[in-house]
Write a structure and sequence with these properties.
alpha/beta; eight-stranded mixed beta sheet; globular
Length: about 280
């Protein structure tokens, strides 16, 4: 009987503590649940470089102030679901994000040979890519949610190369992030490069060999650029895209998803943005 009385007493005491805690929370207005972002998505069209381009914009409507903006430059497949997914994830982090259209008219492809034909002119003539980025930035800056003094860009594969190229051509970004992009393109020029740079590289990427990595670092060091280079062990080209393994097998190309590298690079990107948008 003594034991049962003791357990009953402890139970009643614990219940009283919980009850008091609940009452205190009500009085102080504390909230136990986490509010989910209310992400709004918009498909837009914008003009520039003598062509009509499409864009996908996402932002959290529960935020009532201006916020930093991120331009998302797609892989060479074009403005498909993947860059749109990344724009949504950026919106959940509190940014306004726009996945841009590099090719015009929302053109996409799932053929590597077609993608190569579409992407080659932008590799050969980086100023053409910059003109398309310029047009996308005009559209992104037109949103009332955009803090026009805090804009960055991220890019994947082809898009990563274009982000680096346009930054080295003097685009007024606070920072750029290249995910598994090629590294050497437009020259490193201390009078043009304004952006801080984060490179997220697959350490085993056959498309971006160590020789290119070394050349990139040498160029950036020569102008004392503010850059960070992250290499993820075991990761190959396209390591952030969950569909990469399937696509690689379909077309017999050495690309594959790497969940660990994807997670680590996204975390590194978030820390990078926290630092540049202080």
């Amino acid at each position: 009987m003594k034991h049962r009385f003791g357990f009953a007493f402890l139970f009643m005491a614990a219940a009283a503590i919980v009850s008091c805690s609940d009452e205190a929370s009500k009085k102080t207005g504390e909230r136990t649940e986490t509010k989910e972002p209310a992400v709004k998505e918009l498909n837009i069209s914008y003009a520039g470089d003598s062509i009509t381009m499409n864009g996908f914009v996402a932002y959290d409507t529960s935020i009532d102030t201006k916020r930093p903006a991120i331009l998302v430059i797609p892989e060479w497949w074009g403005l498909n679901d993947y860059p749109k997914m990344r724009a949504r994830e950026l919106a959940k982090l509190g940014y306004i994000a726009m996945a841009m259209d590099m090719y015009g008219n929302g053109l996409t492809t799932d053929s590597p040979s077609t993608a190569l034909k579409l992407a080659t002119p932008f590799y050969a003539h980086p100023e053409k890519a910059k003109a398309r980025v310029d047009a996308a930035l005009v559209a992104l800056k037109s949103f009332m949610q955009t803090d026009t003094g805090k804009i960055a860009a991220i890019g994947y594969c082809f898009g990563g190369a274009m982000a680096l190229n346009t930054a080295r051509l003097g685009e007024d970004f606070k920072g750029v992030v290249s995910f598994h992009g090629t590294l050497v393109g437009t020259p490193a020029n201390k009078d043009l490069l304004k952006a801080k740079v984060l490179v997220c590289h697959g350490a085993d990427d056959p498309f971006v060999p160590q020789k290119e990595v070394d050349q990139f670092k040498k160029q950036m060091d020569s102008i004392k650029a503010d850059y960070t280079f992250k290499a993820y062990p075991g990761a190959v080209h396209a390591f952030t895209n969950p569909r990469a393994t399937e696509v690689g097998k379909k077309w017999n190309i050495p690309i594959a998803y790497n969940a660990a590298a994807d997670s680590a690079s996204w975390k590194d990107m978030k820390a990078f943005f926290d630092s540049i948008f202080k």
